[in-house]
Amino acid sequence: MQSRSFKISISIVAVIIGLLFIVPILWMLATSFKTDQEAFTAGIKWIPEVFTLENYQYTLVGNSDTPVMKWMANSLFVGITGTLIVLIVDTLAAYGLARLDVPFKKLLISIFIGSLMIPWVITFLPLYMEFNVLGLLDTYAVLILPYSANAFGVFLLYQYFRGFPKELEEAAFLDGANKWQVFVRVVLPSARPVIWTLAIFTFMGIYNDFLWPLVTTNSPEMRTITTGIAIMQQGSFVSSPGRLMALTSIATIPAVLLFIIGQRSFIKGVNQTGIK
Amino acid sequence: MTKSSWKSKLTSSLFVIPYLLLFIVFLLIPIGYGAWMSLHNWDLLNPVHEFVGLKNYQKIFDPNSYLNDLFFEGLKNTAQFVVYSVPVLVAVGLGLALLVNTLPGKIRGIFRTVYFIPYAVSVSVVAIIWLWLLDTNSGLINQYLQKLNVPIIPWLTDLPWAWISLVKATLWWTIGFNMVIFINALNDVSEELYEAGSLDGASRWQRFIHITLPSIKPTMLFVVITSTIASFNIYGQPYLMTRGGPGTETKVLLMNIVDEAFKQRQLGNAAAMSLLMALIMITISIVQFRISNRKE
């Protein structure tokens, strides 16, 4: 159907656009290996004249203001724990609502689905005050728990469980299994792809959140990588592009590599969630 | 299978209770608590909160109050960002999806990944990378412009450039997500429709208008609504890139709410502003939904 010249020209367009996406990241890497003096000098140098690792050295070990590794560890811990909590409570609730004789089932479902309409900003300040009253600001609890109330996962899994054939569960019940055993042995394994999708969405959401961790933490060792970097950018690294770019490179490269590996599941997940 | 006795109901309830508790504590209570806060003179450091009724809301609508400026100036700036960014986010997302789908099968996956990569980066990294690219003197973009003999552009310190820069950084960061959703929808359009269109002698453009667009309408609505909500919630990009400048021209509503809450410590005022912002967002979503359904 398509002519050869059409294919070639469309591929060239794709390459040019691709460069626009890649250039900012390459420029970040290039700058991170430059001295600040060279970074500020006019002229476009993709390969540093003086190749230096000083920026990385300083960022990683040279000063106590930037516990980058601690920030990364915080972000991973918060992201993974938050995701696990969401997965556990959401699968349980969604299965209960989809299949079991939960009292007030219809009311609960409509409240949960209705809550998806509520903009996040409405709970932002009262949640802050709630954690303030509980004395839990600047702890892992404040960085993890608020994400668990989101009904998106319950809604997603509820739809999946409703479409799941009843026969398998019924056979297990006939064999004398109780609800919990059926849920763990029959239902959960079948829902693995949807659960995986929810996990990726949830993790990305927590890992990339900015405003909430920014206002609820203040000690340097409780920062997540996203907020830690922002504070350095406004603080002592402000006039050192080399150090800033080393800092962002350290934070970015693992995330990008993970993303390239995980994006297939992510895209497959978008298909399965039926977002269309 | 399950007997509907009270015992069975009890064990079934155990499945829902953990989530229900979290939902109550971290969503329902905050909603009520927020409304309650907005009715008080609520200073962050003062333990006594005086009940003032609807006075905080009255101040927002009183042209002589600084809250009026804070809310409506912020809203105007946020609305500008929404109006500039949403059409671009939707159109470019769809454009990239069409481009990727036209590519030969072997290289399709590579380009889809490349366009999607910035989505893995967090907002502070996005801001820092773009601040450096857009720097007036040392920035890569102005240096390339100079080579082309274009006068340098004050990307972050003058209008309309500050808005253009914010939209550009946001586009680079998030467009991959919209693209993936559109690719997904395009793949679901039935081949037969296209074949029938080709047989009728429809051109590529006619097929796009008469077959593709109507088929992906629900996805279009989804992307428009989610992009609008995301753009309404913009905070990190102006906070880090323009710091609200030049002047307060790009100081968005959420930045004003955060300042009123944590710099002025007036949580009652800020809670009232949050509630109004949420109401506006809900209204816009409903309007978008209604308009799109009427056209059918």
Report on this model:
The complex is a heterodimer of chains A (276) and B (296). By secondary structure, chain A is mainly alpha-helical. Chain A is 72% helix and 0% strand. Chain A contains 14 helices and no strands. In chain A, helix 4 packs across helix 8, helix 4 packs across helix 11 and helix 13 runs antiparallel to helix 14. The longest helix of chain A has 32 residues. Chain A starts with a helix and ends with a helix. With 296 residues, chain B is mainly α. Chain B has a single domain, classed as MetI-like (MetI-like fold). Chain B is built from 13 helices and two strands. In chain B, strands 1-2 form a two-stranded antiparallel ribbon. In chain B, a hairpin with an 8-residue loop joins strand 1 and strand 2. At the A-B interface, helix 1, helix 4, helix 5, helix 6 and helix 9 of A face helix 1, helix 3, helix 4, helix 5 and helix 6 of B.
Report the biggest beta sheet of chain A as strand number plus sense, adding barrel if it closes. none
Q: What's the β-strand tally of chain A?
A: 0
Radius of gyration of chain B: 24 Å
Return the domain count of chain B.
1
Greatest interface and its participating residue counts: A-B, 96 and 93 residues
Shape of chain A: globular
CATH architecture of chain B: Orthogonal Bundle
The share of residues in helices of chain A is over 70%
N-to-C CA distance of chain B: 44 Å
Q: What is the CATH C level class of the largest domain in chain A, in words?
A: Mainly Alpha
Looking at the structure, the CATH topology of the largest domain in chain A is MetI-like fold
DSSP strand content of chain A: under 5%
- Summarize the helix and strand pattern of chain B as letters: HEEHHHHHHHHHHHH
